[in-house]
Every structure is written in C-alpha cells, then in structure tokens.
Amino acid sequence: MTLDQIPLFAMLKSQMGYLSQRETLISENVANSDTPGYTPRDLQPFKVNMPTSGSGAGGGGMTMAPVQANSAHMAGIASSVGSTASGGGSLTQAWKPQDAPDSESRLDGNKVVLEEQMIKLNDTRSSYDTAVTLYQKSMGLIELALRTPGKGA
Q1: What rounded mean pLDDT belongs to the chain?
Q2: Residue 42 in contact with residue 111, Cβ under 8 Å?
Q3: What's the CA gap between 56 and 41, in Å, rounded?
Q4: In angstroms, rounded to a whole number, what is the distance separating the alpha carbons of residues 108 and 9?
Q5: Which SS3 state, helix, strand or coil, does residue 80 take?
Q6: DSSP of 44-60, one letter per residue?
Q7: At CA 97, angle to CA 31 and CA 24, rounded to 5?
Q8: Beta partners for residue 80, in sequence order
Q9: By the 8 A CB rule, do 36 and 46 touch?
Q10: What are the tens digits of pLDDT across the range 38-71?
C-alpha cells in the first residue's frame, strides 16, 4: 500500500498541488503588475471530493449512515457527504486559472493590486504550512504505529 492510497495523504497531496499552482499564479500576477491591460488570475477555492466506496458509473458520493447500536436508539438516515464529477472517486483534479480582477483598476487597464496579491500569497503560504504540518504529524503517527512494542523512542 502506498501513501497515495490513504485518503488523508491523497487529499494533502492534492491540496499541496493546488496551493503550489496558486502560488505560481500569484507570482505571475505580481510580475505583471505594470503590464497595461493585465487582469490577474486565481484559482477557485480548494474543494475535496471524497472517493466513493465503489468505482461504478452510478457512484455519486460517499454515503455515511449512523449505526444503530441499540434497538432503543432511533434509526439513522444516510446522508451524502461528497461527490465526484465522474463517480470514480479521484481526489486529484486539474485546476483551471480564471480571471480574478482585484478591487481597483488603473488608467492603463491593469487590474493588479499588489497589496491584495500579497494577502493572497500569505494566505496560500499559511495553508501550505498547515498541510505540511498535518502531513508530518500523520507520518509520525504511522511511524509510532509501526514501532515494535516495548522499544523506546
């Protein structure tokens, strides 16, 4: 089993790819801040489509239903948690840049506001750092689970 087969790691890999591509777009926006008529680009917010339990054509999302542990408990209703466009359950996705003009435009038609781009860059960096930390903590848990019982650190 590879790490890509574990949903948490697949999601983190996908999010880090998204954040890397977003950082590239922001740097292109900053580089073109003096180009007449340039409109900045950005990506849609990151969304996770959880894999389906089956890989059939009819899969519309992962379904979670509460378990009735005691006959005195109320029966639960299944709810749809997420869906994928193809129903195949893939966490990977290609993100397409879209025009995202900032709050103001200059006389030469340039719509890049450096302050807003720096805010987006800082947000992207913070999200990337969070994903890396979660990845490292998850790897630490796996290493802890694989450690031989009775052995010290």
Answers
A1: 76
A2: no
A3: 36
A4: 45
A5: strand
A6: PPP---PPPSS-STT--
A7: 40
A8: 63
A9: no
A10: 999 998 876 665 555 444 444 444 444 455 566 6
Residue 70 has which token pair? Answer: 């005691």
pTM of the model: 0.64
The count of other CB atoms within 10 Å of the CB of residue 12 is 19
Structure tokens belonging to residue 99: 């025009």
Q: Whole-angstrom Cα distance, residue 53 to residue 85?
A: 15
Q: Residue 130 has what pLDDT?
A: 96
106, exposed or middle or buried, with CB in 10 Å at 0-12, 13-18, 19+? middle
What is the token pair recorded at 109? 């038609």
User: Does residue 132 sit in helix, strand or coil?
Assistant: helix
- Position of tokens 């680009």? 41
Q: Which residue has the tokens 């777009």?
A: 25
List C-alpha distances in Å: 153 to 46, 136, 143.
37, 17, 11
Residue linked to tokens 């994903």:
131
> What is the C-alpha separation between 59 and 51, in angstroms, rounded?
9
On whether the CB atoms of residues 21 and 43 are closer than 8 A, the answer is: yes
Neighbours of 70 (CB within 10 A): 5
Choose among 1, 100, 90, 6: nearest CA to 49: 90
